[in-house]
Amino acid sequence: MTRREARVRAPQLRGRGWLNTGGNALTLADLRGKIVLLDFWTFCCVNCLHVLDELRPLEEKYSDVLVVIGVHSPKFEHEKDAAAVAAAVERYGVAHPVLDDPELVTWQNYAARAWPTLAVVDPEGYLVASMAGEGHAEGLDRLLAELMVEHERKGTLHRGDGPYVAPPAPETALRFPGKAIVIPAGRGAAAGADTTGAAPEAVTLLVSDSANHSLVELAADGETVLRRIGVGQRGRLDDPAQFNEPQGLCLLPPQVASIAGYDVVVADTVNHLLRGVRLADGAVTTVAGTGRQWRGTVDHLAHDARAVDLSSPWDVAWYDGKVVIAMAGTHTLWWYDPVRRTAGLYAGTTVEALRDGPLADTWLAQPSGLSTSADGRRLWLADAETSALRYVEEGVLHTAVGQGLFDFGHVDGPAAGALFQHPLGVAALADGTVAVADTYNGALRLYDPVSGTVSTLATDLAEPSDVLVVGDELVVVESAAHRLTRPVVGGLNVAGSRLRVERPVTDLAPGPVELQIVFEPAPGQKLDETYGPSTRLDVSASPAELLVEGAGVTTDLVRKLVLAEGAGVLQVVAQAATCDAEAENPACHLTRQDWGVPIRVVEGGATRLALVLRGLD
Q1: From residue 594, how far is each of 226, 253, 352, 537, 572 by CA, in Å?
Q2: What is the pLDDT of residues 153-199, one digit of tens each?
Q3: What is the pTM of this model?
Q4: Cα–Cα distance, 113 to 36 (Å, whole number)
Q5: What is the mean pLDDT of residues 259-284?
Q6: What is the mean pLDDT of the chain?
Q7: Cα–Cα distance between 349 and 74 in angstroms, integer?
Q8: Half-sphere exposure (CA, 13 Å, Cβ side) for 357?
């Protein structure tokens, strides 16, 4: 993060409309006297969701001088829908004004290039700092304190309430449910002595009630509430049980559950934890994670599950004798062994993109849904940000449907040309086909591995986030409708359309191009080479043939690339190790940024591409 020395007047805020303001439009003039923090986000992006949580303590600490404004800047077509934006604001508990900017007007005026991006405007209306990525909370805290002192001294700081107006409280039994599983007869609430409403031998459904921060057990009808597990407030206590936007659920095999002491593993997403739930009495235990978000380096070691950091676990499934975790926050899969109580990396490199192959070398993009085939051979996954359906088999990751980070749509037919839009859920069916909760298309889709085709089973669903089989029916978690539904299914064969992200493209010249990563250490820090080279740069491209020379990993932050004509995405991952410059016992820091830069290689394009890596305070 860099504090601007020149005084640059902040651009005006322009968009389609405002949320959380009581219907009032805001201008920077209205906010004069307040420190304004603009958060450019899009609700599909897990890194943006991390920033929402990083900002909550700052909003509370500086509540009388700071106004946070979310500028919603969509990636996917569905995210341009005003109702979807409003639902996302409620879903993620956004307690500040939000500017709906579907045409990316304010995004471009502030020169944003990545999700998320933050910009700080001082009480006089000048832009004083900007930064991309997550992990800036400590630096922002210091900057806000400095600005508060400076402008209080100048008499330009005005304390008092901001423009946030809380929306009306919702009144539904479920609120943005995320995932659901079937609990066999005898293992759920119906087996207990103190519950009513279900026959003793009936299956039940366990649902992650994400926005209510709890789990709900329903009767097989998907409506009758049998019990709620969790007090319904954000938190991470085991007793009384608290969750923070829980998502995925995994029922352990009985013999494993008897050893572990609990029946269900819960992906407690915003807490960066796995929790164990004993169905007999609803007792909750933290089984993996420290509660800190993972910001380390990749290794393939087995770690003490309670001592390792996780990052937004989104789903969990039993596969190959362990719990596999869709670690959306790092674009990887992890594993957890509930008997040995260990955890580690299973697949992926943390690069956000689409690449198949041996698990250690693969690229994923916010994996969000998992399901194991009936024969146990394949683990199917919904790779949300690449809008892809993928699977693991015999230590190799394959893509069945999907083309890349910026290609999506609603197209049926042969898998090579079929398209999804940010799917979050998947269910492997007994006949070998795979049902997909195609979230941003509002559809239930079906992939047939034998024919290699995709079809549409149902449409007009409100952000379906999971699908499961109950008896001989498909049940959909219709998240934005706050319910479980049994849609009438049929082959609709949607021709649909192909869509691409309308993100600004960088024109580069064919042939030699210099890539330069400009590293700006945080104040008071310096590069640290105590344990070897302090910097690392990993470059690749999608499609791979776009990058003729210059792919791979080096320790130099400047590299010559050779590009072929065409269009695609340049994947750049840079990191730098620093330490405190003057401290007697200096702390170590690791700054890492992953860019997916849409490029077009054409005659007349630039011969140099510079990206800024800013140190984290």
Answers
A1: 44, 38, 8, 10, 6
A2: 999 999 999 999 998 888 899 999 999 999 998 887 655 434 444 45
A3: 0.82
A4: 20
A5: 97
A6: 90
A7: 26
A8: 8
